[in-house]
Amino acid sequence: MHIAGARQGILRVDLPGKAACESFNPSPLSSITPLSFTEGAAASLARCSRKIGEMEGMSRFVPNAEMYLAMYVRKEALLSSQIEGTQCTFDDMLDPSNSSAFARDVIDVVNYVGAAELAVREMGTTPLCLRLLRSVHAELLKGVRGSDRHPGEVRTSQNWIGPAGCDIRHAAFVPPNVEDMRQALGELEQFLNRDDVDPVVKAALAHYQFETIHPFLDGNGRLGRLLITLSLINDGVLSRPIFYPSYQLKLRRQEYYGWLTRVREEGDYEGWVTFFCECLEEGADDAQHSLMRLVALHDETIRKIRDHLSRGAVNGLALLDYLESHPIVTTAMVRDALGVSRTTAANLIDDFVGMGILRDTDAGRQRYKTYSYEGYLSILREGGDPL
Prior knowledge:
mainly alpha; Arc Repressor Mutant, subunit A; 15 helices; 57% helix; elongated
């Protein structure tokens, strides 16, 4: 690693003799703020802030918004995990046939959802701090790959980033040594709770700094991206996770990693924040349009149910409510959720298939079939294919 200037931090020589390496000790964010934006960069920041505000406002007035936003948390979990190489799809995460024995990649995503929900719940009474992040990290790695790498505990040894199997001397990046890491984490915790930094700028810088500090032995990328949402919630910009920040970071993954490297090497914080704003604006815009399409689908489906089921519309509307939180179902799931007989559940599913609301995903099977709310899933799947 080669750095130009010292605005962004310094390289520190660690370890003696042949084992010597250079770790990067980042500058405290308090030392580089306020940033100096060009007119174009300032406009990008303003657009991003406005779009996030629009999404937050819209989410407060949309019927059933909580149901849809719960799916957004799952989409963010999927997209963030896919950046790290997870290969599961949106359908994999929701398929009830996976419930008894989740594939490893599915568990990664499910844990991310649990970690996000834990974080939002805890932030109701706890400030955004290292203690909270450690709890969230423990949830993130519970029972999955990385669970043997001290979940919830900051590292006590040097780590590095590079191709699989490389040693520290050939690493692409070596985060700060343990002593520098602890000091940097303390500064980051203070920065997260400052009230004199624009919230979007703060989220961008906090994400960069967390990724650079790399305080855990595993799971830093996913927790660092979750930190974006938590920082915006902490600053009152969001009331809950209402969009998926990892959407454009995944699609523009090489640029994303390139910008993190550029800040470390050249100190271009302003360029990074501008790129970050572009990504968040696009992610919020996509989430806003998806929400509008989900609402339109909801209204259209209600009309179908009322037009075709007449006296059975009550059960039909109850099934629609259930499908918006469980868009892949079995007959047994519908029976239990609605409290009806298996025959009634099967007939209702057949009606929904006939109306084009549900799709039989196991047409060749006679038993244990699953059915998908295809119109709903097609909206949420967008951008969710593995890399």
